[in-house]
Design a protein that fits this description.
Elements lengths: L6 E4 L3 E5 L5 E6 L2 E4 L4 E4 L3 H18 L6 E6 L2 E5 L2 E2 L2 E8 L3 H5 L7 E11 L11 H7 L4 H24 L2 E8 L1 E3 L5 E3 L8 E5 L13 H4 L5 H22 L1
Antiparallel strand pairs: 1-2, 2-3, 3-7, 4-5, 6-7, 8-12, 9-10, 9-11, 11-14, 12-13
Bound molecules: uridine-5'-diphosphate (UDP).
The site of uridine-5'-diphosphate (UDP) has 13 residues, from strand 9, helix 2, strand 11 and strand 14.
């Protein structure tokens, strides 16, 4: 198969393209949605653009709050420019509320509030279905040293505090999320990947009677319908909140 010029890597939801500056890349968000390690797949018009827009606004918010990220700016509606980073092959999941795989693999009841939050680290390896790691296994595999792992855990807790407030302001409950980190050209650890309803569980706080309304990828995973509507709703709420803050200044 002929390789598209400039295409460095194509993943499940994004394509990474070369940038004229070798320290940068262009991240294009695709319209593809996948779940259960791509065993379930579909395409939704506009999904790439929504995730790119949502992610860029969240990265801007995190940068304003001194979190080092790979994000440099938007290139167009569905692409962003980012620092080229060497991805650390772990997926860092932070859970504020028990749900999803945690409840399938343990006896903890869905909806249990986790205080302090739980950080679960998985090996980023699709062919092994991203297995859960232990600190000892991380050492054994020499994936990352102790100090850098501690830096990532501290950054994840700080990001959680910021994101919880960010989403609370737009009436969303941040249940859990997945982060990826990498080393930039200065060997500094920075937040990479994306932050969108694809990798966060977000429950609508406007609901009464304790009904869970997911405005995230669970709508696709669990065939709940209204997938693009949910992502659009999040993007709109973020815009309204940002505009109201700007008007106050
Ligand atoms: N997640 C992700 N990519 C993965 C696995 C999980 O972005 O490969 C996110 C997921 O969207 C959720 C959080 O990480 O917000 C926790 O997911 P969980 O481990 O409960 O797995 P799931 O139930 O999604 O299989």
């Amino acid at each position: 198969m002929q390789r598209k010029i400039g295409l460095i890597y194509e993943g499940k939801a994004k394509k990474i393209h070369a940038h004229e500056d070798l320290d940068k890349v262009i991240i294009e968000f695709k319209d593809d949605a996948t779940a259960f390690n791509a065993k379930k797949k579909a395409k939704f018009d506009g999904k790439g653009e929504l995730n790119c827009q949502i992610s860029s606004k969240i990265f801007e918010f995190l940068v304003e709050n001194d979190i080092p990220t790979h994000y440099l700016g938007l290139k167009n509606k569905n692409s962003m420019i980012a620092q080229k980073i060497k991805i650390i092959p772990i997926e860092v999941v932070l859970r504020n509320i028990a749900y999803g795989s945690l409840c399938k693999q343990t006896t903890i009841k869905p909806g249990t509030v986790l205080n302090p939050p739980l950080i679960d680290i998985y090996l980023k390896n699709d062919s092994l279905d991203d297995p859960l790691l232990t600190k000892e296994r991380i050492n054994l595999l020499k994936i990352i040293n102790k100090k850098d792992l501690e830096t990532i855990s501290d950054m994840t807790l700080k990001i959680n505090k910021l994101l919880k407030t960010f989403f609370y302001n737009i009436k969303l409950n941040l249940v859990d999320f997945k982060l990826e980190f990498g080393y930039n050209s200065e060997e500094r650890i920075v937040l990479g990947d994306e932050i969108s309803p694809d990798n966060c569980r977000l429950w609508d706080l406007n609901q009464k009677n304790g009904i869970i309304v997911s405005l995230d990828k669970d709508r696709f995973r669990n065939d709940l319908g209204g997938f693009i509507d949910a992502y659009t709703e999040i993007n709109n709420r973020i815009d309204i909140f940002i505009n109201s803050k700007q008007n106050k200044c």
